[in-house]
Amino acid sequence: MRIGVAPHRLWPAGEHELDGVLETARTAEELGFDHVIASSHLLAGNLGVTPDPLVLLSAVAGATSRIGLVSSVLILPLYNPVVIAHQTATLDRLSGGRFTLGVGTGWDAEEFAAAGVPFAGRGGRADEQLAVVRRLWRGGEGQPRLGVRPRTDGGPEVWVGGHSDAALRRALRHGDAWHGAGLDAAGLTEVRDRLAALGEEAGRDPAMPPLELTAGQFLLPPGFAAAVPPPGRPLGGAEATAESVREELGQLADAGLAACSLWLPVATDALPDALAWVADEVVAHVSKE
């Protein structure tokens, strides 16, 4: 299983807590994490402050050499698909093909109002946008040529987020992976079964070509205080141990999870030590399985 991590704590309260993200990303690379993730919110709110994901990942790309770069997730309906296709192709090329485009449809109507974008109909627009982005990445006759072509043949991988049937159908139509959040093994198995049923309806077998299962999880390592309460049940349980975290990740792997992206709800100054704990007690074990 591939293990990734956010380069800042869960829900930073202020911009000063983002000042060390590049150093944290370099630390994550040195510790053996597979990728870093960046979420997407235009406005500060109850979830704290959030840097622009493509700008953040571009900076991380320049500060690192190996680690993967994943938007988890970009709120696609807020953006022009031609602009997103160009930005992501540029990031994929300049990073050496390390970028993965994770997308979702968003849930905060206030952000859409601030951007002057309709909140209603965002799911249908996301489907149309993904089709446009894919065509522009591939290029070919009848398609305008992007200012920069992606390094990855056919464009970066696309992870499609969301738990609704509409989101799962979107993943089947446009995705290389489905991207969820906070699921246990039973929940992941249910999603896999739903994908199989919806894929049969849509004429796509999720196994051919393979549609990976990926997910974000919240983890509070033992011995660390929570800066914010994790939303829902944390990975490994409320009183997590190395054994309980590894056991749950093993169950998720058996249920089909290929990549797990971690958000750590610890204080910013504790983040390096928390990353080191995860690397020693989790990454060093599960990434070999």
Report on the architecture of this protein.
By secondary structure, this protein is an alpha/beta fold. Helices cover 40% and strands 15% of the residues. It has nine helices and nine strands. It has helices at residues 21-31, 53-63, 81-94, 109-115, 122-138, 165-174, 185-202, 242-254, 271-286; strands at 2-5, 35-38, 68-71, 74-75, 99-104, 157-161, 177-181, 212-218, 257-263. Strands 1-2-3-5-6-7-8-9 form an eight-stranded parallel barrel, surrounded by six helices. Helix 2 links the parallel strand 2 and strand 3. It is globular, with a radius of gyration of 18 Å.
Main β-sheet, spatial strand arrangement:
1-2-3-5-6-7-8-9
- Rounded Rg: 18 Å
Question: What is the number of strand segments?
Answer: 9
Main beta-sheet strand count, sense and barrel state: 8 strands, parallel, barrel
Give the mean pLDDT: 96
Distance between the termini: 7 Å
- In oligomeric terms, what are we looking at? single chain
Tell me what portion of residues adopts beta-strand conformation. Answer: 15-25%
Give me the strand/helix succession: EHEHEEHEHHEHEHEHEH
Described by the principal axes of the CA atoms, the overall outline is: globular
Structural class: alpha/beta
Helix content bin:
40-55%
- The DSSP helix count reads 9
